[in-house]
Design brief:
heterodimer; A: about 180 residues; mainly alpha; B: about 450 residues; mainly beta; 4-stranded antiparallel β-sheet; 32 strands; about 15% helix; about 40% strand; globular
């Protein structure tokens, strides 16, 4: 944890903020891209998150909680981007809904099925899934990061996985692979 | 393999590698141009690192003295380099009103005082300087045309002057905009950091006339950096958080952002020519013209276009003059052609117009019943009744008065402050052909009412 960098950035040191941003931006971008499923939206969300981070940094009381705090800002920026561009997201969803070309690779077929099902989840459900299954955060930490009750996180996680599982089963993938809930 | 493992595998396989190289640079550049929000909590309670360690009284005094000297030096340098823009204090009060006359000079006036020439830009501007007080009332921005040194088309510039005690004291900044353009009409963002204005090319054979604007410029005042956003522009208004600008293009409302983000159109805003963003940021008011008819609806819509309500339907629109929210957000004023002529009720009414103030209980503009108040269209004088029909209406900073740029069959063009309180008497601020706020070529009847600066 770059406590000193955070402290300097809080005091208005732009160089320190640039260093912080450089060390975090790849992780932020990956999470945003996985949640939003769109390169441009993810870039906009990361940019917006860093702008908010700079502006609100002096209000951060505990430097040690910087990363969780930044992830929460990113999540909110991602939600905002998703809402602002919902018309475009709808278009994107329609494109994803087109039947994909048959492929012999079972892995590719399964990933396409997951992709189609994932974009139908709410942005809030996607965030829980990505933070838990990609960023390897325990659900309690996901709750802290998103600023929502643990029960809500568990509920979103449950329904998200159930939706994904149902989608795979509908495509005949769950039975073929013997998926377990 | 269970569903959780499959999802994890898929996400890890699908995750992108690195962020695009340009993303870091542009994000940091955008971020650090924004001011940081200071925490009152930090001001009151020193951080742990600041409290730790024994410090003698003399050392503390030396540190304090050194800090004060440093702050004084930095303060002086900061004032010289760039005057800080002070945020508005609580409780808006009304200050001076600035307006231009046909010769391009900027006059100041307020109730009880005669109009005085305060900013003389004649000879360099044409007609319309569009004076605009900064939100804290300490600065005045205006557009003008600066003659080129070696001939050729004049250069449009935006100036910012400091205003103290109702006087223009110094030119603080001059921002070149470009040659061959109309004098810009700047609009301050609520935080005083940005100016927005349309870019309009001057006609080749008449520099007082411009073509339709085809882009809007967002100018960051502290640095002079700007971005131009292409597209037709007929009216603009800032969001209260200063992060976005609503642009009425004549065909729709677009939202343009101060950060590098693509504009988006507000759905279902076909034909929008004028916009006014509510002070709480939740709604944008605009007039929806009826195709092929001289009538319009007054509509409020949220910035995403997901919720809308028609407040007034089918009124006779008045030259496309749009609605204006009061600064406190509790009232919305618009103009319509009156239904009957005041001097001949049987005659059709085509020029005289009503000023109508709308209110909504609890500011619930989307659901509550709207109350309509038609303002008096005349005032009584010793010589009888004088009508006062505004070309344009704005508000006083404390939302207690409307400011008319008015005309009448009987008197010269005038500036009139009209209190909203029932039974109150309007105040004529200016009524003289010498300092007429309107009339001249290119004069678009611009006036602005200052929020009185807070005295320390």
């Amino acid at each position: 944890m770059d406590v000193d960098l955070v402290d300097r950035a809080k005091a208005g040191d732009r160089g320190a903020f640039a260093e912080l941003a450089a060390s975090r931006i790849d992780g932020l971008f990956r999470i945003a891209r996985l949640i939003l499923r769109d390169q441009q939206l993810a870039e906009d969300a990361v940019q917006e998150a860093l702008i908010r981070c700079w502006r609100q940094l002096p209000k951060l009381r505990d430097n040690g909680s910087f990363d969780g705090w930044l992830n929460r800002i990113l999540y909110r920026a991602a939600v905002d981007e998703s809402n602002r561009r919902r018309r475009f997201v709808t278009t994107l969803q329609n494109l994803y809904s087109e039947p994909s070309v048959a492929d012999n690779s079972q892995v590719i077929v399964e990933r396409e099925a997951l992709e189609r099902a994932f974009v139908r989840l709410s942005i809030e459900q996607r965030a829980v899934v990505v933070l838990h299954h990609y960023a390897d955060m325990p659900l309690g930490q996901v709750a802290t990061t998103l600023g929502i009750p643990l029960g809500t996180v568990k509920s979103r996680h449950h329904y998200a996985l159930a939706t994904l599982k149902t989608a795979l089963e509908r495509d005949g993938l769950a039975l073929a692979e013997g998926l377990q809930p | 393999m269970n569903i959780e493992d499959r999802v994890s595998d898929w996400l890890h396989a699908d995750a992108p590698g690195q962020a695009p190289a340009s993303l870091l640079q542009r994000s940091v550049e955008r971020a650090v141009t924004a001011p940081q929000e200071r925490s009152f909590w930090r001001r009151l309670r020193p951080a742990e690192s600041e409290k730790s360690g024994p410090t003698s009284r003399s050392t503390k005094l030396m540190l304090l003295a050194a800090t004060l000297v440093t702050l004084a030096l930095l303060g002086s340098l900061a004032v010289i380099a760039s005057r800080p823009i002070v945020k508005p204090g609580p409780g808006p009060t009304n200050g001076w009103i600035a307006f231009t006359n046909a010769e391009g000079a900027i006059y100041f006036v307020k109730p009880g005082t005669p109009a005085e020439l305060r900013v003389d830009v004649s000879g360099t501007s044409l007609g319309n300087a569009c004076p605009a007080f900064s939100p804290d009332g300490t600065q005045l921005a205006y557009g003008r045309l600066k003659p080129a040194d070696g001939g050729g088309p004049a250069e449009a510039v935006v100036d910012i002057d400091t205003i103290e005690a109702g006087r223009d004291t110094a030119r603080l900044k001059e921002f070149p905009v470009g040659p061959g353009l109309m004098a810009p009409c700047p609009l301050w963002s609520p935080d005083g950091k940005w100016l927005a204005f349309a870019l309009s090319a001057a006609e080749a054979d008449d520099s007082a006339q411009g073509t339709s604007p085809t882009s809007v410029r967002l100018l960051f005042v502290p640095s002079g950096g700007y971005r131009d956003v292409e597209g037709q522009v007929q009216d603009i208004d800032w969001s209260p958080d200063s992060m976005a600008l609503a642009v009425a293009s004549g065909s729709e409302i677009r939202i343009v952002h101060t950060v590098d983000r693509a504009p988006h159109a507000v759905p279902e805003t076909t034909g929008a020519q004028h916009v006014s963003w509510s002070p709480d940021g939740r709604l944008i008011a605009w007039e929806r013209p009826a195709a092929g008819q001289d009538v319009a609806d007054l509509v409020v819509v949220d910035p995403l276009g997901s919720t809308a309500r028609t407040l007034v339907a089918g009124f006779h629109a008045n030259h496309g003059i749009g609605p204006v929210w009061s600064p406190d957000g509790h009232k919305l004023v618009y103009q319509r052609l009156c239904s009957t002529r005041p001097d001949d009720p049987a005659a059709p009414c085509r020029e005289q117009h009503d000023v109508v103030v709308l209110t909504a209980p609890n500011d619930d503009w989307l659901a509550a019943r709207i109350t309509e108040t038609v303002m008096p269209e005349s005032r009584q004088t010793s010589s009888g009744t004088e009508y006062m029909w505004p070309f344009f209406v704005t508000w006083s900073p404390d939302s207690s008065n409307l400011l008319y740029n008015a005309w009448s069959p009987d008197i010269d063009d005038s500036l009139i402050a009209v209190p909203l309180a029932p039974g109150s008497v309007p105040t004529v601020l200016v009524q003289s052909p010498d300092v007429s706020p309107g009339g001249g070529p290119g004069a678009d009847l611009i006036q602005t009412w200052q929020r009185a600066p807070v005295t320390p």
